[in-house]
Task: structure prediction
Amino acid sequence: MNLKDNSTYIAGPTRIFTTVLVLLIATAMLQGIIISTAMLWEARPIAPIKKPKKELSEAEKHLEKIRNSGRQFLPDGTIHLVYTLPDIPTLKRAIDERQKEIYDANGSLLWSGLEKNRPYEYLSWGVMIHGYTESFTDTRMKQIQMITPEFSRSLEIPVRSREKTEQVWRYDPGRQLFVGYRSDGSKIGYIGSTGFTDSKSRAKPFGRFKLFTAWCPQDSFSPTLLWQTSRRIYEINFEKQQVQLIFESAKSNIKQINLHKWRAIRPETPQDSKIPYRPLIKCLTEDGKHHLIMRNPDRKLTVTVDGDWWSETISFTATTQGIYLFYRDTERRLPSAFRKSPKLALEWSRKVRGKPYKKWVELYKVDNKANLHLLNRCDWTVPAEPYPVVEAGPLWTKVRHYACQFSSPLYDLAWYLLGRQFLFQLYRGNDFIRGFAEVTRELRPGNSILNWLLALAMVGFAFWHGWPRKTSLGKLIFWFVFTLVFNLAGLLTYLALNHTPIIKCPLCGKRRGLAQVNCIRCGAELPAPERGKLDLILNT
Amino acid sequence: MRFLALLRKELRESLPWMLLAAIIFLAIGGFVLRAQAYLGQPSWYYSGLSPGTVVDTYRLTHFSPLRMTGSWLLVTSIGLGLALGVRHFWMPLFTRTWPFLIHRSANRPTILWAKLAAAIISFIIPVGVVWVALYRYSCRPEIFETLPTKRVFIEGWLFILLGLVAYLGTALAGLSSARWYTTKILGLAFATIVICMTIFQWRLGWAFAVLVVGVVVLLSQIIDAFLNREF
Amino acid sequence: MTETVLETEGLTKYYGSTLAVDHLVLKIPQGCICGFVGRNGAGKTTAIKLMLGLLRPTAGSSRLLGCDSAALTPAIRQRIGYVTEGHRLFRWMSIAELEKFQRSFFPKQWDHKFFADMIEYFNLPKKRKIKHLSIGERAQVSLALALAPNPELLIMDDPTLGLDAAIRRQFLEGMIELIMRQGRTVLFSSHILGDVERVSDRIVVIDKGVLRANCSLEEFRTAVKKVTLSFPDSPPADVDIEGLLHCRRSEKELELILIGPADEHIAEWAQRNGAEKYHIVKMNLEDQFIEYTAPPNHRRLFQWEEK
Result:
């Protein structure tokens, strides 16, 4: 390819690309500033309906307590309502120093006192690994790999004694395994899905990372990891250089995992150690099945629940006496029929807003064949509450609507073709593409006629500007289509790259460009100046 | 011979900026790196690791000792790119030496390649060599508790190449004959976008892909502008 | 037949919507010294840059040494010396470094002895940097750099701008040195008509981008005349003399600027129209140029009242 070809085939398109990209970003920023300014100018929440403060009777206070109590189950299935008395805000007492009242299912007071003196032992339940510190998700893995001006970070698991670090195992995201180093920097080996090896070629990757949590066993200063990938869960002990495959889902990806007493750590409360729990992991897969992995003894069980149940609120626990399932639900939960579109979801929330609704909790026992047997259930009604609504003011809505009409119609097309999943699927991908998706969502014109009219007006201006400067019909048509597609950014791009000089044709007096030899209207060339009769032009 | 004469001339013009960049990066980058060594064992990272406790996973992520040096590397590279871009493509405008240079008995591409080659050498020698030296120093386990990964080394070279992107953006802006308040700064704006998009990638492959696309886009326009520009 | 080293055909240049050069048709034969003159903003520098391919014409074309200006090859550029307006050189280089740089582009034809002689003649220290030279010294260096490769065609854009009389004389003498070499062609633009008069054998006048004169210096000097005529009464209203460019009248006098007519024709017209006396004013080239390029109905800036 010679340099002339570069000019024709590469430089031209890249110039258009550069200009339109910068101008799209610039117009989006300008639109954002205008919309934000309108929002700030008119930031007004609709005032919430003020409940007249009236003194509650004893009965009403009692009812309030019952409604606000936590529902707890004893191992035999009995339900208690545990109410925590409000604390002085500045005091911030420890959990076991809080004042509690315990009621039975009928609302009769059974006990009152400090949490640490509580005479009842309630079942505790598996919870998702949550919190910024306890769980390390794939999003955070991406974040630490982000280049940034301070370079990317690495995930390193130490093997150490009380005084010093003996080894460091560094995670290699590319190879999806750990590489070990001694304190002198020399390599120890590799830990992959098949365990430890000192050979790079024999080390097998763990698979696509999803989440891990770490704890130090009671006899060690070195972390052990519970490592979850798309389909598997591993337990990795770096000190012993051991990898144990805890669970593998053959058909479906893992959606969520809950842990209960799996991590061998010190008990948090005195009551914790009284019920003989079995370590348990609950693994929810995308096909809706709940897989239980238990220890002491080792056992696996798959539980299938009603399709309409709210999977995220199902918890399990396992003791030496049996396996229990705890379920809670509410009438406020969005029914599946309304999940199809944001519009329907909004319609549902407006329907239920400000009305009383029911909540309930259920306790089931799970038998050896994974069947559920209801042990107990408790439901109650939450009274209607005035619903403070913050809605956009009319000015902001209007400004937003009109500002977005200057956006490219392509934004609407992108959302029409790719849909809402565009945003969520790309969450895992490139952050800039995701950012682009969010911008197109916020600034899309909304299939408005006004948007197309504006685009046509831009094309009209481009025609007025471009016709006298025309060098080729093909180029002109390209720019008209370009302007139509990219709207304001397209027109600005066209003007930036085509604002060539223009003069009045000496013959017909109309505007003509200088890029073409002949006037577009009359066809005349640029005339030579009149030669003065006395000019001494003697080409000897 | 013509190319070498032009290259020597461009290198000589770039020399003060090369030296300045090398000194700044070595001095400040080296100082902040050495400061990491004096922290000794980063015991605070592992202070939460006691038996029978859940580990704060944040403590398991580590910056390399070159963390602060990286910021300085990026700033130095981009600063060098801007300075060289101005020196090579803006100063001839201000000093009106373009006609003298263009009229040399060398074709325009030769003049342009000499400038670009001088720019590449200007990045590799002062900044690249210093970076390699600092990286090698940071790999000493007797001085630093946490050693850098090989990826950090590649990321450093990525930052150096981002300086080249800044250079190309400045060059394109300098070669543009538009007014400053219209499209003259588009080259710089595009270079800024490429730099931002590159340093906030989490996959090195994507980062290099963005960089390569940016360089190709800028370079093709620079070639076109230089060959067709009026001086 | 004399070879044409430079020719332009309808060369036109617009800056935006401003016309800088308008259909310039020019032919410069080999071996001549051509003075390229015009008022400020006439388009001289633009025309020179168009010829050298530094600017792209809006219309028309230009050829140097048989090669299209838009595609001048390095081989052709080697045969052309160019002294830029204002003598803009690399300020950080010393004279010796600049020579070394320039020499790289002329591996075979660089005359080092000639360059060294010129620098010595101008009394310039080789190690001094360009930024420490005065404008006159820079002009000398520019000339030496342009002449040392022994170019066939030397183009200079206002080379004596800002130089004092002594330096200008030296500069012109250097040019004459080149002229004495056979077959060399020089095109230089200048505001100083005295210099043009001293060295040129051809003159090209450009006015508002339009070519007004392209002839030998002798023809120009002969053709442009100023005649003052005195009349006993008021001068004739209708002045129908051949070659009339401008006519200024006072109460009893006429001042005519004429192009081309012989002295006998002037005498015959004066007698026919009843002039008491007439006088052909002796003008130098500068006066001739001013009158030639003056716009019609030109009013002097300061008009003294007679008391």
Observations:
- DSSP finds ten helices and 26 strands in chain A.
